[in-house]
Design goal:
The longest helix is centred in the last third of the chain and has 20 residues, at about 310-325. About 35% of the residues lie in helices and about 25% in strands. It has 11 helices and 15 strands. It is of the alpha/beta class. The chain has helices at about 10-25, 35-45, 55-60, 75-85, 100-115, 130-140, 175-190, 285-300, 310-325, 335-340, 345, and strands at about 5-10, 25-35, 50-55, 65-70, 90-95, 120, 145-155, 195-200, 215-220, 225-230, 240-250, 250-255, 260-265, 275, 330. Helix 4 runs parallel beside helix 5, helix 5 (about 100-115) runs antiparallel to helix 9 (about 310-325) and helix 7 (about 175-190) packs across helix 9.
Length: about 350
Amino acid sequence: MAFTVLQLGAGTRGRMWGKVVKMSDCVITGAVVDPSQASLDLYAAENPETPAFTNVEAALAAGFYDAVILVTPPDGHLAQMRRLFDAGLPIMAEKPLATTLADAAAIVDMADASGLPMSVGLNFRYLPVNQTMRQWLTGERLGQVGFGQFNYRTNRNGKRPGINRYPLEMEHPMMLEQTIHHLDLIRFVHGREVETIACREWNPPWSMYAHDANVNCLLGLEGGVEVNYHGTWSGGWNVYNFEWRVDCAEGILVQRKLHSDLAYARSADPELIPVETAEAAPYYDDSVALLAEFITAVRNGRPPPCDGRDHLRSLSLCFAGIESSQTGAAVTMADFYERNGLARLLS
């Protein structure tokens, strides 16, 4: 029997989710909701078979759904998810869960009170390159893990067609829209939590973003692992420049391209050796894998993937980084959780 989803949000990422559902086995979109008729028209051009509504109440009244895919700006998630949980619907929500820690914690509490599964769309965890990195690092195939450098540089044109516009005006756009993925991946591939973070945010004078488009962090992970992170949406070159290198006692592991190209070298090797990983279309195949795991959890009563508590740790890193940038002091995460009332959810 097909698994039927209600999709809220028909913008750029919403149209991508429409394709993801079509790529998935035994999943259909029962209806799509967006207050913008223009967005619905674009969605309908690719999905003419899907009923479309401009408000969620009409969609809820029109049919039965097994779950919701929530693809709306994060500042509206709290009210939207309260209504969806009241309707008895499991939720797959795009990240970030909310734009404040208080709202994110409230959403986790709502999910607990409802007893319904909730996942956050951290699809990059499901890319083969990141799955393989996790296997190598947690398995210590190159010996004890020591330190790493994660560099993501681009000049993201936030005004080009087909891209979400709201980051142009939001506060902390790089941190909350892009860096959150990277900090989550650092946690994921190492299989370790971050214990301390020292961070600096800033905006270069030529940036088209109203708020900080540059993030630089030093992360202290469990077991003494240190990671330097630098990310920018306002670089001086209109080309992606990416490298993620991890140094271990017996060699290095390096991802040389965004979403692919993994290689390693043992200490005495004269050059890098490619690591074979499966082919995957980023944003699509990884989302298909995440959706499949979410559906399995809903159907079988299993813990959902990328749940609210897991995501809350990555989101907390973002806000601890913002605090560090504002105060000029490193932040200890255990203390941060206590001060922000999150320890009860993350213990």
